[in-house]
Structure prediction request, 313 residues.
Amino acid sequence: MLNQSQLRQFETQGYLVLERLIEDDLLLRIESEYDAVLDTLINQWLASGELKERPTGSFFERLLMVNQQALDWFQPLDITLPMEKITEKTPFHLGPAVFDLLNYGPLLDAVASLIGSEIAATPIQHVRIKPPAKHLSVNENRAHVGVTAWHQDRGVAHAEADQSLMVTTWCAMTEADSDNGCLMVVPGAINNSLMVHCPAGQTHIPDSELDKSKALAVEVPRGSVVFMHPSTPHASRQNQSDRFRWSFDLRYHRIGHSSGRTHFPSFVVRSETQKLVGNWQEMRDTWLETRARLALEPHISLHRWSGDTPVCA
Ligand SMILES: O=C(O)CCC(=O)C(=O)O
Ligand SMILES: [Fe+2]
Prediction:
């Protein structure tokens, strides 16, 4: 549970850092789960001829070699379905270690202090594995692989969640610093305001609407968690280092409140009265059912912005 000064920090600044909240054992299990997923993908690409030679070395070394072959490695490593049109084959990864992170007791204890102890995991959950920018194509515009533009998390959900009690938890799998593309936030008292976002490229707050002179770089060691209120403006820096920057952003809302993406499933992770999501297979199967349903439907936009306000011109 959070103490008074941590709660005050969150209320007055819109964000809070808990350094090294995630235990090493869980970080290592996530790493080895991802190692195995990457090997499976590599075997598939070798079999299909998309890869000619087996990449060797550490997870990051192999991923860099795959990246250099311009293979789409990101979506098969992400933990939910994408923003684009979903097909019956759209890949994603949800395994036991990822499930354990989503249900991690110390994380949920802190979340309970912020939104109460009836907690659902929202479907707005992502992995971000960011290679050094020098290895990315100049056209790379995905906020999960390259730079993230300034936004509020309220701005990337539907309006029905504007009043939802919700919190973003940004979990550092590697250290994050100014060099390798850490988060940036504009701190300030929580006011639930929603700024204009423009849809061109990444959904973003236009420069004219945000005073970035007070922006802070949130540098954290591996295993740390950054908690953000959904009205806190944030972005990420470019990864100018030679290292990868790896994080998960997981979101939680109070049970009964809207996630802002209700065509996707939410999952009960802590409750006195409701049945909890049982295990990783149940969670993965729910996503697989969602995928099968959405593959047959027209694409649903993940935000509300049309871009026709003058500030987006
Ligand atoms: O890690 C990033 O680049 C951005 C993360 C983000 O926007 C979030 O956690 O809500
Ligand atoms: Fe965000």
